[in-house]
Amino acid sequence: MLLALLVLDAGRTVRSARLIDELWADSPPPGAANALQSLVSRLRAVVDPVAVERAPGGYRRGSTGRVGPLLYTRRVSPGRVAAC
Q1: CA 5, CA 58: separation in Å to the nearest integer?
Q2: CA neighbor of 71 nearest in space, from 46, 52, 41, 50
Q3: What CATH number has the domain spanning 2-83?
Q4: Pair 56, 11: CB distance under 8 Å
Q5: Which of 13, 40, 68, 74 could form a disulfide bond with 55, CB atoms 3.0-4.6 angstroms apart?
Q6: For the chain, how big is the Rg over CA atoms in Å?
Q7: d(CA 51, CA 79)
Q8: pLDDT tens series, the chain, 84 aa
Q9: Is residue 75 within 8 Å of 46, Cβ to Cβ?
Q10: What ranges do the domains of the chain cover?
């Protein structure tokens, strides 16, 4: 889900607050910002680490990140997709 949100807004920063809202809807976990950082870290471990960049106020798909649908389906197992 996190990767999908970043890919859909390719080239633009997705604000952390929006990511938190999209990922956890009405019940974000305590320390949601830290939980988001953890998800980003786990995502970087699965895809090219430069595919997700920290940007002022949020995150964006990296400028050199080759995260297309084919790479996404090859690298991210269904279990990881559910976790993200």
Answers
A1: 12
A2: 46
A3: 1.10.10.10
A4: no
A5: 13
A6: 12
A7: 20
A8: 888 898 888 778 999 999 999 999 989 999 999 999 999 999 988 887 788 899 999 999 876 545 555 455 555 555 555 555
A9: yes
A10: 2-83
